[in-house]
Amino acid sequence: MWGIFFEDINLGADGGIYAELVKNRSFEFDNPWMGWKKLENTPEGSLLIVNDAKRKANARSLQVNKETAFKVGLQNEGFRGMGVRQGADYVFSLLYKQQQPGLSLRLELLDENNAVIGEAKLAMENREDWQNASVNFTAGATTAHAKLNIWIEGAGAAELDMLSLFPTETWKNRPKGLRKDMVQILADMKPGFVRFPGGCIVEGRDLANRFQWKKTVGPIEERELIINRWNTEFNHRLTPDYFQTFGLGFYEYFLLAEDIGAKAVPILNCGMACQFNTGEIVPLDELDEYIQDALDLIEFANAGTDTPWGKLRADMGHPEPFHLTMLGVGNENWGPQYIERLAAFQKVLHEKHPEIAIIASSGTDPEGERFDFLDERLREMQIDIIDEHYYRPPSWFLSGAARYDNYDRKGSKIFAGEYASHTTRPNGPGRSTWEAALSEAAFLTGLERNADVVTMASYAPLFGHVDGWQWSPDLIWVDNLNVYGTPSYQVQKLYSLHKGTDIIPIKRNQQNVVGQDSLYASAVYDEISKELVIKFVNYNSEPVDAIFQIDTKRKINGLGSRIMLANADLDVANSLDEPLKIQPQQAEVALKGKSLAQSFAPYSFTVIKLPVK
């Protein structure tokens, strides 16, 4: 039920969880020199950008021409700098071919004061075909804003491409892998699913820049870069250097989900660009390519190695299937044009893959004419799962705790695919306040109480980089060296770590606890751990005393545990300086028979766990 939503926004992938430290490593940005600068007085013609159409997805490279041993160098600024740690090892790599022998590379890692904190040398062989080369070296200091110098020494001629720098210590130590601390904070949640790759980047500002999963698999040097649609989306946070290199592609997303024990939930373009931008659509008679992408993705994820896409998965290192069970068609799309395209997908997918559940969009808002139209039509189509989104103020989340109490128990299931309580927006790093998180905790009691209808839920967006964000609030904030969870992260983590197998009614005066006297509650039984789990929100400025009478024939052990998040100041938030301002506090609780008396702190969210025999 409780999972994570991943989108490459706020430097979430490039410059974030994808551990590459070099920006524009293959010179494929609109401006091929973005992120780079030439060192010294480089003679005209000694460094040239070559565009070779035969290389298609990665056409550009750097031509080096040095007839004599004059000094030539490049510097890369990284993603708002490069985060490096003292004593850690880093690997520099590149693709190259050398037409005239005699060149070698000397590497320097500089701190923010331009002091050299790491050095290495790399010789290049005389080869006229493309080959890989790499060298490891160690950083001598810690800094969040390092730069990389690449000095080209000797005399000769060569082409260079894919100039790259990675830490050797990545998640599971995979070469050119993911940033370890950012994956770890996700794994700590024990999420049930990972939805990817978004989000609005699925649609793109136009169809030419939509997310196409097939261009994100295979060798990374053959993956075709595109502009990130968050590059120019917000005038207040223009980010002209934001592109998608797809080093984090669909294979890596599937692998990430598998690594942290979660189901993969990919979302595909339905033949529509973002309706907030161009709103382009593909004619219905040209939709086959998009539907085929869905069929081929299922083959890539689930089929045997005797199939073309299953073989590619195996060639990439995973012969076993990924066991895909659900697939999203469209993201935040709306209107009759969406229903027409969804119906075409549904017909083919139900015929060829009835085992795959379809997730469909209910638009951008949780109410209104657009939502009502989609909700009615999707239910008529018997869509498996309806994806509802809510970005709303705390008051909406408090009043919405009973939203699903009267939903149809036999109809489509609900995916709370993007939720976040917004006090203000945009409000900058870390301003996911305790007020926002506590209102979400109250709302989530309603999701848990109706878990027979709401089968999945995920906060959005997931990551925000303090120096490169476009949208806030976000669940987790990072800089180039650190990562911390917001109060909202702490709330969803408590739900995710303490979920149950069965819904248990919890009543006050024979009614669900959904805001009476600003109290909210839900309860589950966990058949696996043999525990009764009570979640309780006190949204009052004063303590609240409560007595729970447990109606069961089973034996309740006399000693349980309590985990609480609380702060009397609703405006507090976690930060880089105080990452645990809001964090769980644990204590024991004792029953008298089958009665439990508790006092709940002002503005608190509490999880109580009671062992059951």
UniProtKB/TrEMBL annotation:
Catalysed reactions, as listed in the record: Hydrolysis of terminal non-reducing alpha-L-arabinofuranoside residues in alpha-L-arabinosides
Protein name: non-reducing end alpha-L-arabinofuranosidase
InterPro entries reported in the protein's UniProt record: Alpha-L-AF_C (IPR010720), ASD1_cat (IPR055235), CenC_carb-bd (IPR003305), GH (IPR017853), Glyco_hydro_b (IPR013780), Glycosyl_Hydrolase_51 (IPR051563)
Species, as recorded: Sphingobacterium griseoflavum
Enzyme Commission numbers on file: 3.2.1.55
Family label: Belongs to the glycosyl hydrolase 51 family.
SMART domains xrefs: Alpha-L-AF_C
The UniProt record lists the keyword Iron-sulfur: no
Keywords for this protein: Glycoprotein, Hydrolase, Signal
Sequence ranges assigned to domain Alpha-L-arabinofuranosidase C-terminal in this UniProt record: 417-604
Highest rank taxon of the organism: Bacteria
